[in-house]
Amino acid sequence: MKRTDVDEILRDALREEVSGARACLDDLEERIVAELGERRPRLRTIDWIRQLVAPTRGARFGQFAVVGATAAAFLVVGLFASRLLDHPEQPAVGGGIRLETAQAARTGMQDVLFVVPAPLAATTVVVVGDFNDWEATALSDEDGDGIWTTTIPLSPGRYEYGFLIDGRWWGEDPRADEHVQSFGEYSSVRYIGRGGEGG
Amino acid sequence: MMRHEIRSTLAAVLAVLVLGAAVLAAVPFQAFEEALCCIPFEETERILAAIELGYGQENFPSEDTLRLVERLVEHPSPTPEKQGILLTLATALEEGLPIDDLLNKAFEGLARGVPLNQIDGGLYQRLILLIQVRDLLYANGIFSVPAGSPQSVPSALPTPRFNELLTNIADAVGDHLEGGGSPFDGHILFQHVEERLMALQGVTLLQADVALVLERIEPADLTHVALAAVS
To answer: Is position B218 within any domain?
Structure first.
């Protein structure tokens, strides 16, 4: 065999080899992507939480901000809810014929009913006391019989109060536990929760 | 590593909660400066300094104090009368006394339309009573210690418990005097105080604290307290 023939044979063999290898490389990228896609694990909930708890340094601040804002939101909502429980919307008006209490759903709190007779011409009757920071809580007289009432939830303690009937002070509730003089006029005092009594 | 991250997250949440609670719980001191800047009080600096002292007290009612300052600022009465009420409060804060009862009395007067000079007269008498009763308790070995501190002896009461006793005793004596009672009626004064404390025993006062006061205080002590308030 001549030397040139041998060269030809080797050249042809190499050419076939290279073209075959090129064919292998043609769709290599697509095949790798497809295979990775098949093997990519699904992100489970627990993994998501883990990522949240152990984020990359770059994302940590943002995720802390989200967690912090959520916590702050819970705190604010909680505080407002507790304030609403302490000072719920209160019905309007009244004087001192009866003051009754009923055990409220909340532990230690009692719904205290304030009742006051007022002249039929009266237009505004409010109760003020240390339980409402001496801010007026209106009483109502829906049937117009001159008996004004309201119910206020109170925690155990001693409460001083009186009524303002069209702006005039009236502090002698006959159902009060005691009466004290203050600024020259009587105020009523009610004890809630004393010796387990309802008020 | 994971535990470290969890701890960091929990610490951050805790910090947010604590800061949030602090921000929501207390009125900033600047609010008092802003409220008082509208009125040319001669003693504004003293009043502000006393309020600043108040922030160092346990359970300082900053919200109610600011509300009273704002109500007084808006009140149509002459400036000296408004200042008189604030100076009485300032004195109480300087003395380290609880001011809840004084604030309550002031709001009561405002709600009933009582003139400011009359309100101040009532507040001043209550202030003297608070001072006298505190000194009486101290003289009888009943002390106040900061809440959370170890209670070395049974008569060293945490501040909130001590203040509750102090306020109720002073208020009972004050009610007796306002009702026209004589300061010399030691036994009647003692009876009023005893009734008040017994009524609140187990409600806002501890039985042990009530017993402690009733066994150490005598009718003559209350006569001295009442005399100081009316003289």
So the answer is: yes
Note if the pTM is more than 0.80.
Answer: no
Residue in B closest to A171 by C-alpha = B112
Of the candidates B6, B122, B202, which has its C-beta nearest A183's C-beta?
B122
Concatenated DSSP letters of B71-84: HHHH--S-HHHHHH
* Residue A93 included in any domain: no
Residues recorded for chain A: 199
- B148 touches B187 (CB < 8 A): no
A59 and A74 Cβ atoms separated by less than 8 Å: no
Q: Domain of residue B155: give its range.
A: 29-230
Nearest CA distance, B5 vs chain A (angstrom): 6
A69-91 pLDDT, tens digit per residue, is: 666 666 655 554 444 443 333 33
* Nearest chain A alpha carbon to B25: A79
Residue range B88-118, pLDDT digits in tens: 999 999 999 999 999 999 999 999 999 999 9
Per the domain annotation, does B20 fall within a domain? no
pLDDT band at B82 (very low <50, low <70, confident <90, very high): very high
Q: Find the CB nearest A194 among B104, B113, B203.
A: B203
Q: What domain range is A103 assigned to? A: 99-196
